[in-house]
Amino acid sequence: MNDIVIVDGVRKSYDNGFEALKAVSLNIREGEILALLGPNGAGKTTLISIICGIANASAGKISVGGHDTLRDYRAARRLIGLVPQEISLEPFEKVINTVRFSRGLFGFPKDEAHIEKVLRQLSLWDKKDSRINELSGGMKRRVLIAKALSHEPRVLFLDEPSAGVDVELRKDMWRVVDGLKRDGVTIILTTHYIEEAEAIADRVAIIAHGEILLVEEKAALMQRMGQKQMVIELQVPVTEVPEALHRHSLEMGPEGTLIFSYDTRGERTGITKLLSDLSAAGMVLRDVQTRQSSLEDIFVDLVRKDA
Fold it and tell me: Which residue from 9, 82, 248, 290 lies 20 to 30 Å from 92 (Cα-Cα)?
């Protein structure tokens, strides 16, 4: 699979000495969905802004579709659609004209069929003649997405697109994203709803303090770093881990349960020995449940270690 976006050693520093990005390198594959995750202030929006040509890098190089974003800015920018965090729209313009205007800005000819398709995908067709200031916040967010799709980009950046929107819009948006991926569009997503990234991303990049901590296939990452936990409910709840079970590194759970973490990739999980020791200590099981670490668990753990 070819790389459509190549970020090579990009730095961003300010006059006060603050370094927002520290030699970031990142290759984004054509047709993939990449989730760019990081805490507030990690550098996500700064990186996206530089790739999209909204901000300038202090050092480093970026190419999009083989076009250098500085030497061949127009060709690179025509390939990119951006849905920003902030809602900034002309309040008295009609929805359909707003989307048409965005297409024209990139030098594309009129295509009313495409504009209608995008507006229908986002449930905006019945609002096409409404003025922006008549729309709800969620509907304005839909217009931002329609603007980003107006010129049929090959790379789409979604910077916190779910922030402050309703469930219905989220579902519409992910339906559109799924269709775009099938059409070969590359999608870079930043989100605070990590369960969304877990559901739709192919790869995950985690950024903190202006540095990329890892870039990995989502499935491989969850298999490599995800743990399973076994929640043990006893017939008689306990208030502390019994001394006879200290060797198993158990933790106390809610309502007197015990929690045992284990690696499913290991040759031996330790479960058999734990259950044997429970029985030898005279403890009777009421119930046992297992749960898998989520992408959010992995993300929080990685960022905490880097802090």
Answer: 82
Give the number of domains in the chain.
3
CB 143 within 8 A of CB 84: no
Alpha-carbon distance 201 to 239, whole Å?
A: 41
Could you tell me if residue 84 is inside a domain? no
**119 within domain boundaries:** yes
CATH number of the CATH domain containing 251: 3.30.70
Q: What is the pTM of this model?
A: 0.76
**pLDDT tens-digit series, residues 131-157:** 999 998 888 988 999 999 999 999 999
C-alpha span between 266 and 189 (Å, rounded)? 33
Give the tens place of pLDDT for each residue, 278-299: 888 888 888 888 776 666 676 6
Pick from 224, 223, 229: nearest CA to 258: 229
Residue 164: helix, strand or coil by DSSP? coil
Judge contact between 113 and 78, C-beta under 8 A: no
Tally the C-alpha atoms within 13 A of residue 73's C-alpha that lie toward its C-beta: 7
The Cβ of residue 267 has, within 10 Å, a number of other Cβ atoms equal to: 5
- In this structure, are 276 and 233 located in the same domain? yes
Measured distance CA(91)–CA(276) in Å, rounded: 69
Do 25 and 75 lie in one domain? The reply is: yes
